[in-house]
Design a protein that fits this description.
globular, six-stranded antiparallel sheet, 3 domains, Pdz3 Domain, 2-enoyl-CoA Hydratase, Chain A, domain 1
């Protein structure tokens, strides 16, 4: 998602015949606006229950944006604050990722080195009370709002944990939680870089990860695995920075708006931080948006082998327009294209090597939702795209018949990652670039 501030239009350039066409169009528009106001007044006066004007107006705005695409939206106070916290990479709270399950708040994971992790809250725990108040049946947003608060303030969590005979109680002190978008570690002589989101820290953190691995492994580093699985994306600028870490030069991505000649191209600066070492990029159906930009750029330049499963397929850019101090408009304003001119909208990034996640015991039952499954998604305008929308043959690949239990017995907890790590050890020097991109 691209975060931009735009300025008001300063002037209009008139062409012959424009005034008449504009007048006719405005007349039709005013008729539609009159109809909108007629409905608004009728609802205000005669609806069975009294509804405040703010609710009706926001409903009209939401309906207008819902008619466009799945990613355009009106952001109220909570949504706008959450977006800013996500992109800034920090917030004040407990450090929990939670979800709603059958009306209960379930912990997905506690973030490392946060109050929740330090207290011993675990993935799979169910939060039932906050400060002794039952939250079962509350919305997820309501529960999250209660858990967040000023740094230094205290809150009591009551948790139900499988295997424990009675509920557990935790007294936590809120802190400023810094979202770490990048984690790295050495797996033998391979550098593993896990990028979980693209916030304002991701580009610098990725470069620091490469430097850290080179410092730890020195000349013995065989190559790198960049794990982008389940990465929902984020800031466009940070995707460009991350790609730049691994590219010597060339185009990273182009951004194309409504007018055909309204195009921005973004290029990598000279210098590959890895020194040309082999790279494998891991993707899956949850790899989206900014993460697909990185995967597509490295794939097009033949800088990396992309491994895993076809990505989500979100090839659009959203611009955030602040409307007031606590509201904003998130509007789809462009499509992006990989260096070779591919649009991933609907289609996603096809891996060079398709590898299912066999260590998931429910891999055969999984029915992933991608961009193409969302209502009113943008259509890919590349003429030959329809062929790629057809799912591949579902006949089991004889190479990938191992069961999760068998892999676990062999110590393989993450089959895709294990495959990528072993592949890096077998790769030679990177191939010559697949394409040349002009700098115009």
């Amino acid at each position: 998602m691209s975060w931009k501030i735009v300025l008001p239009v300063a002037a209009l350039v008139l062409v012959p015949g424009y005034a008449a066409v504009q007048a006719a169009a405005e007349s039709d528009t005013y008729k539609e606006l009159d109809a909108l106001m007629d409905v608004f007044e009728r609802v205000r006066v005669t609806y069975v229950d009294q509804v405040d004007d703010k609710t009706l107006i926001r409903g009209a705005i939401n309906g207008m944006l819902a008619s466009l695409d799945p990613h355009s939206a009106y952001l109220d106070g909570r949504d706008y604050a959450n977006l800013r916290q996500t992109t800034d990479g920090e917030y004040s709270g407990l450090g929990l990722t939670v979800t709603s399950e059958d009306g209960a708040v379930k912990v997905v994971t506690p973030t490392d080195d946060t109050p929740a992790a330090k207290a011993g809250i675990k993935a799979g725990d169910y939060i039932t009370h906050l400060d002794d108040e039952l939250i079962y049946g509350s919305t997820l947003n309501e529960a999250v709002d209660k858990m967040r608060g000023p740094a230094g303030s205290k809150i009591k969590l009551t948790v139900v944990r499988q295997g424990e005979p009675k509920p557990l109680e935790f007294q936590l002190t809120r802190e400023v939680v810094v979202i770490k978008p990048v984690k790295w570690e050495a797996r033998g002589n391979v550098g593993l870089i896990r990028i979980s989101t693209f916030n304002s820290r991701t580009g610098d953190a990725t470069r620091a990860a490469v430097e850290g691995l080179r410092g730890k492994l020195g000349d013995t580093v065989a190559g790198y695995v960049i794990d982008l699985r389940s990465n929902p994306g984020g800031l466009l600028d940070e995707a460009i920075k991350v790609s730049d870490v691994f590219l010597e030069s060339g185009e990273v991505v182009s951004e194309r708006r409504r007018a055909k000649n309204d195009v921005d191209r973004y290029f990598a600066k000279a210098g590959d931080a890895t020194g040309g070492k082999p790279i494998v990029v891991l993707v899956d159906e949850g790899t989206a948006s900014a993460a697909e930009i990185v995967a597509g750029a490295l794939q097009d330049h033949r800088r990396a082998i992309v491994l895993g499963q076809r990505s989500f397929g979100k090839g659009s850019v959203q611009t955030v327009y602040p409307l007031s101090g606590d509201t904003a408009l998130r509007l789809t304003t462009a499509r992006y294209f990989t260096p070779s001119g591919r649009s991933v909208q609907e289609l996603g990034i096809d891996p060079d090597i398709t590898v299912p996640q066999l260590s998931d015991p429910r891999v055969a039952e999984r029915k992933p939702v991608r961009e193409a499954d969302l209502k009113k998604h943008l259509i890919n305008e590349i003429k030959d795209s329809t062929d790629r929308l057809v799912e591949q043959d579902s006949t089991p690949d004889p190479r990938f018949l191992a069961k999760a239990e068998e892999l676990k017995a062999k110590g393989v907890i993450d089959y895709q990652l294990d495959y990528a790590l072993r592949l890096v050890g077998r790769l030679g020097p990177p191939a010559a670039p697949r394409l040349q991109v002009a700098g115009a």
